[in-house]
Design goal:
Layout lengths: L7 H7 L33 H17 L12 H4 L5 H14 L2 H12 L6 H19 L5 H12 L6 E6 L7 H20 L5 E6 L7 H16 L33 H24 L3 E3 L7 H15 L7 E6 L5 H15 L4 E5 L4 H10 L10 H21 L3 E5 L3 H14 L8 E6 L4 H9 L3 E8 L2 H14 L1 H5 L2 H19 L1
Parallel strand pairs: 1-2, 1-8, 2-3, 3-4, 4-5, 5-6, 6-7, 7-8
Helix pairs in contact: 2-14, 4-19, 6-17, 7-8, 8-10, 9-11, 10-11, 12-14, 14-15
The structure holds flavin-adenine dinucleotide.
Flavin-adenine dinucleotide binds next to strand 4, helix 14, strand 7 and helix 18.
């Protein structure tokens, strides 16, 4: 009971929360926080008919709005790469070429996961190779200083791109590792503070790095069961936004889960405290925080912690906390609409990062191993449509109201559709409400094209010691196979620009 007594109120008190002032992040001196969390939300309310009408209108609207070709120029390689040195272009072309060769990626992944890595000499050679190729291409640096330098060069000299800083740990299994990761995330905010204010757009956190994975699974099970049976009591549950829709998959939780033990409840509070500490630090540093989306087995708990913290921290125009929606999920659009409507109803601005999703193969494997239909759209076209419809819904919403959207994508068509819509609605230059983002080392033409069209563009920049970042690189390599081999447009444009520079130098 003593553990349960560490209630939300105490939790907030222990973080010495004050009141927010209505200043948007990244505009001026930091605002101060609020302890007001007693907003009550009717979680049983399911405005399905309103939702169905909105979804139908959204589909029609997005399909009609496809005249999108003219706002981003991806053909003028000289203009696109004007801020990139020839050495960088050469290295990028070589690294992308290497990463696009499937046999090399297969071999690399086999080696990294093999027992050979236990031999010190072999391991050192492999790590040195990775460091000077993939790591340097896709990561910002091993420590704070190297990362700061990379962010500065991304932002200065006409490049004008911003950084989403992410300490690239994958997940933690106990409180000790979570505490270590918390320190690393807090240090990440310190890195942001030491850089020019406009150069860092977001701090990114993986919740499974600050709350043990097993616990996130347990909490997700309990939340899922409560959605099925509203009489199922979760005494530890805080106010949140809707996490499920009627079509959300429930196959992860086939039988009524046991309540959390006192120890689990305590660990959940510790996880939430860690998240609130990061929120507070981000608020003080005037830089927003985005929580990454992960597997569906843990996403309900991630959304729950994200939304309950957003209710405490997002006030007026100040969006401290952004969640992430994965458009490859069949229930993505409904969940986005429900969460954003509930946020409007209780008067908090909510920010969303919209991605397609990076755990496709493992999601499909899990669903099929349990004998259920995959939670992922049956075709890539459906994923594209879902992505564009979610983007369209949010762009309409933020054009006239609260909220913010980060379109995290390498998909040129999605970029063009969103830009055309934003242009029609008059959202654009220096808007903090609509931003674009690509992974560091990927889709440079799209990033520069969007920047040239007047939008805020960020690069998602993982950093940390090579050994810590390797699981992140392996996951990206595995999940982004198609993407890396589809980077041929990038390489083509880079080669074109290299040839032009060579010619100019010779003549
Ligand atoms: C800034 C940033 C942040 C990100 N954060 C997250 C995050 O928090 N969580 C997360 O899960 N991912 C995240 N990602 C990765 C993202 O989800 C994608 O894996 C990646 O960006 C590729 O999608 P795309 O929008 O760039 O689209 P595209 O370049 O069009 O790539 C589409 C890819 O989607 C896949 N795909 C999706 N649905 C289907 C389907 N139904 N059938 C077949 N293939 C399908 C295919 O592999 C294909 O290669 C992030 C990406 C970026 C750029």
């Amino acid at each position: 009971m003593a553990i349960r007594a560490l209630s939300q109120k105490k939790l907030l008190k222990s973080l010495s929360l004050r009141y927010f002032s209505p200043k948007p992040l990244n505009t001026a001196a930091s605002a101060s926080p609020s302890a007001s969390s007693s907003i009550s939300i009717n979680l049983t309310e399911k405005p399905e008919s309103i939702l169905q009408n909105q979804l139908a209108a959204l589909s029609a609207n997005t399909n009609a709005n496809t005249n999108n070709s003219s706002y981003i120029n991806l053909h003028d390689a000289e203009k696109l790469f004007s801020s990139v040195s020839t050495t960088k272009l050469l290295r990028a072309t070589a690294n992308l070429h290497l990463a696009s060769m499937e046999p090399i990626v297969d071999l690399g992944m086999w080696v990294m996961n093999s027992k050979l890595m236990d031999m010190e000499v072999f391991r050192d050679i492999v790590l040195a190779f990775v460091k000077h190729t993939f790591y340097e291409h896709f990561c910002a640096g091993e420590n704070a200083l190297a990362t700061e330098n990379t962010v500065r060069s991304l932002n200065s000299g006409g490049a004008g791109l911003r950084a989403m800083l992410v300490y690239a740990v994958e997940y933690a299994s106990d409180n000790q590792s979570c505490d270590r990761n918390l320190e690393a995330f807090l240090d990440t905010v310190e890195i942001a503070k030491s850089l020019p204010p406009s150069s860092v757009s977001f701090i990114i956190v993986k919740l499974s790095a600050i709350c043990p994975m097993k616990l996130l699974e347990r909490v997700s099970d309990l939340l899922r069961w409560q959605y099925k049976d509203s009489s199922f009591n979760l005494p530890w549950k805080l106010d949140t936004l809707p996490i499920f829709s009627d079509i959300s998959p429930t196959y992860h939780t086939l039988k009524r889960p046991e309540p959390l033990t006192l120890e689990e409840e305590h660990d959940l509070q510790l996880g939430h405290q860690r998240l609130l500490k990061i929120c507070q630090k981000c608020l003080d540093a005037n830089v927003p925080l985005t929580i990454d989306a992960e597997h569906t087995s843990v996403q309900p708990a991630i959304d729950y912690l994200t939304y309950s913290s957003a209710i405490m921290y997002n006030k007026y125009d100040n969006i401290v906390m952004y969640g992430t929606i994965q458009a490859y999920l069949k229930d993505a659009k409904e969940r986005l609409l429900l969460a954003s409507k509930a946020a409007d109803n209780i008067g908090i601005p909510m920010g969303f990062k919209l991605v397609r999703g990076a755990y496709m193969s493992s999601e499909r494997k899990l669903a099929s191993s349990l004998g259920f239909e995959s939670p992922i759209h049956n075709s890539i076209q459906e994923t594209h449509a879902c992505y564009n419809e979610c983007a369209s819904f949010m762009i309409d919403k933020i054009a006239n109201g609260p909220g913010a959207l980060v379109l995290a994508t390498h998909n040129v068509e999605s970029g063009k559709i969103a830009v055309a819509k934003a242009h029609d609605l008059g959202i654009g230059r220096v808007s903090q409400k609509l931003e674009f983002a690509q992974l560091y080392g990927m889709s440079e033409p799209l990033s520069f094209g969007l920047r040239n069209a007047g939008f805020q563009v960020s690069k998602y920049m993982p950093f940390g010691p090579v050994e810590i970042v390797i699981p992140y690189l392996l996951r990206r390599a595995e999940e982004n196979r198609g993407l890396l081999s589809a980077s041929s447009l990038d390489r083509q444009l880079m080669r074109k620009e290299l040839k032009r520079r060579l010619k100019a130098a010779v003549i």
